[in-house]
Amino acid sequence: MEWSLRTAEELIAAMRAGAVTSVELTDEAIARIERDDEVINAICVPDFDRARAAAHRADQARARGEDRPLLGVPVTVKESYDIAGLPTTWGMPPHRDYVPAEDAVQVTRLKAAGAVVLGKTNVPLGLQDIQSFNDIYGTTTNPWDRDRTSGGSSGGSAAALASGFGALSIASDIAGSLRTPAHFCGVYAHKPTLGLAATRGMVAPSEPAFPTELDLAVVGPMARSARDLTLLLDVMAGPDPLTLGVAHQVALPPARHERLGDFRVLVLDDHPLIPTGSAVRAGVNRVAAALSDGGARVERHSPLLPDLTEAATLYMQLLISGSIARFPMDSLEQLRIRVAELSADDRSLDAVRLRALLFSHRDWMEANNRREHHRHGWRRLFAEFDAVVCPITPTPAFPHDHSPDPMERRIDIDGIEHPYFDQLVWAGLATMPGLPATAVPAGRSPEGLPVGVQLIGPMFEDRTPLRLAELLEQKIGGFEAPA
Known about the structure:
alpha+beta
């Protein structure tokens, strides 16, 4: 029997029943990687010897009667996490030889839960792209179509899951980096509420692994089923033991409802700043129809929804100004000239991004204050609704585009070109206010590519969109392996 495409929940049940061992699961996963990954290029840093040793220890622990949450389950880890003894480069050539001495806090939690780490998955340069390619490890392809991207920046993790390279993966998200690859590769992902899961050790190799509170960025789970997302989130959730964890413990509230018919859902498929492609719109409508058929209350409009144009603008301002603080530019004088040449009436997202590159601390504080107004607006909306269903990006996976200046790239939406980074507005809808969002498969495009949607939930009520994801999986199906 082949186990590599089973869910983690199924693997755990099989190991408990004595139907398979962790060593057998690990050997099968490694054989699959060695057979198929030359084309996919998802696993950029294999760690097979230590994985086999960990699997052997897991089997011994089970024989002694231990039963930890992920005992013996083969998993992968995004390259951007520190793992002692393995390189952490973020795809940046100057750091190709950096090897941390300590595990990231989430790697520590994975291992404590009994998981078997197969290796690390590929990322884009500095984690700053919607694709996953770099000069150290090359390009990760989409398992459904080698000529298309698997997404970014967690594209290696999504491609690994779709290909059967481990049952789970831990990754991160600041611009849809969990959700977009899941959408492109037909798997599941969950962007937790901002601050729910500790991030220490998920840090660029040029920076120390301090227990800092990040803005916008989160770490989270990826899987091949909705229930597996909850299984892994329960391992990941919790503050850093060096800071808030000294005094705080996590007690996430239960999902608001258990039955599909009890959910109140707002469905969005139009954005004022970018069109939604027909394939993605069809996926959103498929989910909306399933919700209605299941008895849920489904609305298409609400006056409580925060302004989407301002939300996208604030998101770009916070994202870009934060990015430039971490990765400074060399040509600031040229940038100042370009910004000065912008028309005062230019409110395009391209102009927003350029201006944000020169943000002062006062500018950031003003944007952050507006963010609080949006958070309050979302609290009001979630008093009337339990979840929001909307796109993750406007299209399915697009062809590889490695042109050197991302600002000059374009995304084709039903035959019309749009600025490449404008496609981030849907991901930013949850990221800017720090809301949880679960990416779920929602069918296939006419070309046979996966299409996903995101379920946005109330802050720190992560179990609500996760439960809705489980119910939708039962209603419309979930992961399908690439042909």
